[in-house]
What does this fold into?
Amino acid sequence: MITYEAIYERLREVARARELITYKEIAEMVGLDWRKDYGKCRQIFAILGAISTSEVQQKHPMLSAIAVRQDIRIPGSGFFTLARDLGRYQGGDDYSFWLRERDEVWGYWSSH
It folds into this structure.
């Protein structure tokens, strides 16, 4: 079963370690096969969005910045769309924005 709490706690652990986690790893963590269960895996994106929305409302960086695609090691397009929707990003250089947000996540959670 996919749970907000399990994903949130795992993201915090990964952030404290100053590491990244892939969407595939998150799927496996909750018992899904990324290739076979893609429809269910989409729920993960909704949870990641809810986590980052909550974090931004608390004046924290977007915790989902450390969840990345396996192939290119940066978040997918939904992350950048959400960042714009939340007022964290006005567009431009996605990669530079992501590096800043990732570093803010690592800095925040390594001290909390």
Q: What stands out?
A: The mean pLDDT is 95. DSSP finds five helices and two strands in the chain.
